Amino acid sequence: MIFVYSAAKLSPDAGAVVSRKLLTDAESIPADAVWIDLIEPTADEDHRVETALGVVIPTYADPDYTEPPEAHYSENGARYLHAYLFTSRDGPPVALGVTFVITDTALVTVRYGNSGAFDLFGAKICKSPTPTLKPEAIAAGLVTTIINRSARSLSQVGRELDEISSAVFKADGDQSKRNQRYSETLVALGDVDEKISSLRECLVSVERLVLFLAAEAPPDKEHKPLREANKSALRDLQSLEEDANFKAQKVQFLLDATLGLINLAQNDIIKLFSVLAVIFMPPTLIASIYGMNFKAMPELDWQWGYPLALLAMVCAAIFPYLFFRWRRWL
């Protein structure tokens, strides 16, 4: 699919209005296109964009497609940048690879998946007149939207961690219910850790892209807003990376806490069996003594010898139990 964002100039002061259109197979690329968004392009769509802009657009549809040795490079007057975006709309979190091609007249993005940042930014620039529609400015605005979406995803991860923390430290019910809650917590922590790992990978990738854009920005006065936008984006990325590191540490803390609570529960079970073994040791000793086959055992001839032996075994079991309760070992 090819989505084209075209600009219609209103006036020097009012700026330009952007319109979005999905091109059919028979339509060519408009001359006033400022942003061309390729979603899972075919070989024909790739060829149409290359013919219109006069630059190579790397897509999987190319028969001779090869992975570039560098993530960011310049070639034939165009700048090629590759980054990974976090997405988890239709399943587990994944890092969506996106290629940015910045030419003198338009920005081209190539992606093989859906991303809410692209739809959000596209709707934003179509709502009101835009002062400047240079490819670098569009790329900077798109990157800002990507950063904001990443911050939103990171906040959602923080809320999930708060729910997990509450479930771990406020688990109630009997031991079987708590064990089930601990098992569910371990699975949830694994899912959250996977999201944080994907987010951190994407933030580092976008940070490298912004650094490349900042290094390529001309030092003249006209490009000062673009340089300021890149600096602001870098500050946001650094703060998000620190937040992601903090949440990764919290995941490790909750994992250690959950495993510690599981060990405590197992220790309680082992302690119970140990205490029961000690409690029944004296009665077993008495029963073993009277199970010996000796002739010279006076108690065998007593009328109350058997009841007395049973009473001695009961007392030998009760005394250790009361002693453990007194020492608060139970």
Widest sheet: strand ordering:
2-1-3-7-6-5-4
Q: Could you give the count of β-strands? A: 7
Classified in CATH, the superfamily of the largest domain is: CorA soluble domain-like
Measured by DSSP, the beta-strand proportion falls in 15-25%
Order of helix and strand elements from N to C terminus: EEEHEEEEHHHHHH
The domain tally reads 2
The major β-sheet equals: 7 strands, mixed
Cα radius of gyration in angstroms:
35 Å
**Architecture per CATH nomenclature, i.e. the level-2 architecture of the largest domain:** 2-Layer Sandwich
Report on the structure:
- The protein has 330 residues and is of the alpha+beta class.
- The chain folds into 2 domains: 265 residues, Beta Polymerase, domain 2 (2-Layer Sandwich); 47 residues, no CATH class.
- The chain contains 7 helices and 7 strands, in the order βββαββββαααααα.
- The chain has a 7-stranded mixed beta sheet with strand order 2-1-3-7-6-5-4.
- Helix 3 runs parallel beside helix 5.
- The protein is rod-shaped.
- The mean pLDDT is 78.
